[in-house]
Amino acid sequence: MKTSLLITFLSLSVFISHSYAVELIGKTTSKNAVRIVSEVSGVIKTTSWQVGDAITASSALAEIKRQDFELAVQKQRASLKLVEADLHINKSTYSRYQALRAKNSLSQNELDVAKADYAAAEANVELAKIELNKAQLDLKNTTVYSPIDGYVVERNVNEGAWVNRGDQLFTLTNIDTLNARLLASEFDLASIHVGQPIQLWAEANPNHKITAIINRIGVELDAKTFAYPVEIEIENSQHLFRPGMSLHATTTFSSGN
């Protein structure tokens, strides 16, 4: 009788233990994808980066032909000099008219006109400075730089192609940290919770197991997968995982390399 009860208890313990073990599958996704767009319109002069290339922050991704932009800067500098000269004349005239008006040698209307001309000349100088700054910024933006350390995951441009302002040139990503999106059934939800440790590994390298923490669990069934999304963040400084890798995860921990 005692032996029978012991066997029943052990069997029940094994059943309970396994009933709480959760096995999930999913994929890694980029956490910090950056879309690089052109800030100016023009013809691509050079671009040598390909999909999969590692890239460092401040590396030049592409260069747009500069000639027209250099001419635009020169033109705006010349325009600024013209309006500055006009401002100097109007300022001198207004000062002289003020002195004449003080002596009653000039009508108030003539002084008002001179004052308005002076104010308009000042405004023209400010506008010319804005146009010059814009031309200089456009010239600077003919070279497109990477804002991050990472990898090229998409290239949308070739040398000699015309691009418009706002056209996407590249997509970059940093994979030092990745997101993992796992799929849980409604029966799995009773055995997992936010903050719970979970062990993961990639199909490409099943011997390399890592432990991560569940960050979020979806509250609505995904219409495409018919599962609840489970979001996890993976520390990936050694770049052993790549975006798009198939993952397995379990709440039953085992030793791994």
Q: Any overview of this molecule?
A:
The protein has 257 residues and is of the alpha+beta class. It is built from 3 helices and 14 strands. It has 3 domains: 21-32 and 175-250, Elongation Factor Tu (Ef-tu), domain 3 (Beta Barrel), CATH 2.40.30.170; 35-62 and 143-173, OB fold (Dihydrolipoamide Acetyltransferase, E2P) (Beta Barrel); 67-140, Helix Hairpins, CATH 1.10.287. 34% of the residues lie in helices and 32% in strands. Helix 2 (67-102) runs antiparallel to helix 3 (108-140). It is elongated and about 100 Å long. Residues 1-19 have low confidence and may be disordered.
Provide the descriptors you would attach to this structure in a database record.
single chain; 257 residues; alpha+beta; Elongation Factor Tu (Ef-tu), domain 3; OB fold (Dihydrolipoamide Acetyltransferase, E2P); Helix Hairpins; 3 domains; six-stranded antiparallel barrel; four-stranded antiparallel β-sheet; 3 helices; 14 strands; 32% strand; elongated; disordered N terminus; signal; coiled coil
CATH class group of the largest domain:
Mainly Beta
Which sheet architecture does the biggest sheet show? Answer: 6 strands, antiparallel, barrel
* Overall domain count: 3
Mean of pLDDT = 90
Name the structural class: alpha+beta
Overall morphology: elongated
Could you give the order of strands across the largest sheet?
Answer: 1-10-13-12-11-14
| CATH topology title of the largest domain | Elongation Factor Tu (Ef-tu), domain 3
- What is the CATH-assigned architecture of the largest domain? Beta Barrel
Give the N-to-C terminal Cα separation.
Answer: 45 Å
The beta-strand count equals: 14
Q: Low-confidence parts, pLDDT < 50 over ≥5 residues?
A: 1-19
Let me know the CATH homologous superfamily of the largest domain: Efflux pump adaptor protein, beta barrel domain
Strand content: 25-35%
Q: What percent of the residues sit in helical stretches (DSSP H or I)? A: 25-40%
Radius of gyration: 34 Å
